[in-house]
Amino acid sequence: MAFFTWDLHLDLVFGDVTLASLFDFEPDDLAVDVPIMPLVEKIVSDDRARVAQSIHRAIETGAPYQETYRIFTRSGDVRTVIAVGRCFRSIDGIPSTYAGVVVEVTGSEAFAQSDPLEMHCRAALEMAELRGKELVSRYLKSALGALNQVGTKRL
């Protein structure tokens, strides 16, 4: 799971080493800042307009964003990712910061067979269990139960 923050006023993206690796940047490149366009240019052209429209809508409305799209690597491989984010506003209501996560799902059979909400809950459950967060694990199992998924797939 890769994390990012985009300063809309400066048009600069800050991301972790996982995001840098996923988008084929040097590990420290996104720790300093990079304009958004080099990341957007990695998106497969067939997906780019749809993704741009969704991001624009999220910036205008403040609604959560979620898109599945493909990105190119230097080697010519294509990766499929799910990006989830939200645009935050200043006290004056002006869009200022866009933050989110990107998860690679390339070739994931589980992704193809499940809805994104279930996938994110399962990923969060796995992290909670790895960190020994029993209460969080219980809540996530309850959420998965509400999605009618508990028992049909391995937790």
TrEMBL record:
List the InterPro entries.
PAS, PAS-like_dom_sf, PAS_fold_3
Q: What's one Pfam family here?
A: PAS_3
Which residues are the signal sequence here? none
**Annotated PAS fold-3 domain residues:** 21-102
Q: Which Gene3D superfamilies match?
A: PAS domain (3.30.450.20)
Protein name in the entry: PAS domain-containing protein
Q: Which organism is it from?
A: Neorhizobium huautlense
What is the phylogenetic placement of the source species in the record? Bacteria, Pseudomonadati, Pseudomonadota, Alphaproteobacteria, Hyphomicrobiales
